[in-house]
Amino acid sequence: MNKILVSLDGSEISERACAKAVELAAAMKSKLVFLYVANVNQLAVHSCLSSELLEAVNKAGDVILTHAEENAPEGVETERVLETGSPAPTIVDVAEEIGADLIVMGSRGLGLVKGVFLGSVSQYVVENAKCAVMVVK
C-alpha cells in the first residue's frame, strides 16, 4: 500500500479515523495524504458564499490539516490537500487523482431517516471509490 488518503473534518470521529490511518501508514510505510474539504454546498444553504466566509472555512481546514500533520510520527511521509466542494465526490476524485490505495474516513450516525433523505458521505465514498475504503466509527 503506497498511499493512504484520510478525510478530515475536525470531528471526534475523523480524529479516530486519522489515528487509524497514521497507524496503518506507519506499519506499512505508506505515504499519508490528509484531505479537508470545505463544504460549499452547506455554506451556500446557510448564507451568501462570500470570499470572507470561504477564507475563514479554508483557514479552519488549514488548522485541522496542520494538527494532523503534527501528530504524524517521524518517518511517515505526509501531504496535505485542501479542497472546496461537495465532500463525497471530492473525496472520491482526490483519491483517484493521487492514486490512493486506501481511503480512511469517519462514519456519521445520521440515522435512517436523515440518511435516506440527505445521503451519507461515507456511503457515497464506499459505493463510488475505485480503491478500498475503511470507515471508522
Structural write-up:
It is a single chain. With 137 residues, this protein is α/β, with parallel strands linked by helices. The chain is 52% helix and 24% strand. The chain has six helices and five strands, in the order βαβααβαβααβ. The chain has helices at residues 12-28, 40-46, 51-70, 87-98, 112-118, 121-128, and strands at residues 3-8, 31-39, 78-85, 102-106, 132-136. It has a five-stranded parallel β-sheet with strand order 3-2-1-4-5, with helices on both faces. Helix 1 links the parallel strand 1 and strand 2. It starts with a strand and ends with a strand.
In a nutshell, what does this entry contain?
This protein is of the alpha/beta class and 137 residues long. The protein is built from six helices and five strands.
Low-pLDDT residue intervals, each spanning 5 or more residues: 109-118
What count of structural domains? 1
Q: What is the count of helical runs?
A: 6
Classified in CATH, the superfamily is HUPs
Overall average pLDDT:
87
Distance between the termini: 22 Å
Strand order of the main beta sheet, please?
3-2-1-4-5
- Please state the overall shape, judged from the principal axes of the Cα atoms: globular
Measured by DSSP, the beta-strand proportion falls in 15-25%
Tell me the series of helices and strands, N- to C-terminal.
Answer: EHEHHEHEHHE
Structural class: alpha/beta
Would you state the CATH class?
Alpha Beta
Q: The biggest beta sheet, please? A: 5 strands, parallel
Give the radius of gyration: 15 Å
CATH topology: Rossmann fold
Please state the second-level CATH architecture.
3-Layer(aba) Sandwich
